[in-house]
């Protein structure tokens, strides 16, 4: 199999995977809420309500596509399209598994193995806010504009803490390459002297504070509860998406769930060993490259789905912040903590060199 053919198949597989997980995250969100509120949740469309995402998608497609009279029509369409495009493209640099051997050739399960993968994802996430800002402004609605301004302010604020927490991981691994960051977590010793089981030398053991900061910032970046102030229904009538209907609204909603999926995949790569799992080297030696590769994909997706469920658990547990509380947490708590963690990381690296 040629490399180009494999890459095309991988791109299509990732596209379908992202959309499927995003669709069934809406089902899981309702089920998690139902369990926590002692309800049943979706149970009419198919067994256990498993066809509910298809019913919701069909409803989006067949509802009237309304455009406000005074809206900037081109930008009105560009906003949700940009959000969805940016959400999907960030998955291109994530290593989703070890390798697969097809026809005697080993293929990496990564669409684009670039040296600056971390920078690429952070850059794309920064561009994503333009989709929300453009949609809110183009709607020519004061609630939409307020929601868009809230979203841009929130994302800019929490990107700083996110970037600073990432620097500690970059300093430890000495690379911006996500593949190298993942491989660095597969062997070695924990804290330099405790022998690690193959596949469990994860960065979470070294950087728990960086993980906590990054996790909180990721929830704020994806506008997840309790950081959903840009679209809070009680104040802004869903904020930047107020004037949207049909599949344009669907793109905003799907974009949020794809963002949540990619954010958790990024967290898994940075802090939980990526596709590594206990005994990965033993499996490779005894069961072969393909068995280890398939198990690595399963391990990666399992970790990612657990992260998504934690996002949902937090949504239905914590109340929404006030806006001043949100800014106080970002600027006066997370950024100073990230700076302190960065200084400690640098000192430890210098001490053990």
From TrEMBL:
The chain crosses the membrane at residues 6-27, 74-96, 116-139, 160-178, 190-217, 249-272, 292-314, 334-352. GO terms for cellular component: plasma membrane. It is found in: Cell membrane; Membrane. It catalyses: a quinone + NADH + 5 H(+)(in) = a quinol + NAD(+) + 4 H(+)(out). Pfam families: NADHdh. NDH-1 is composed of 14 different subunits. Subunits NuoA, H, J, K, L, M, N constitute the membrane sector of the complex. This is NADH-quinone oxidoreductase subunit H. The gene is nuoH.
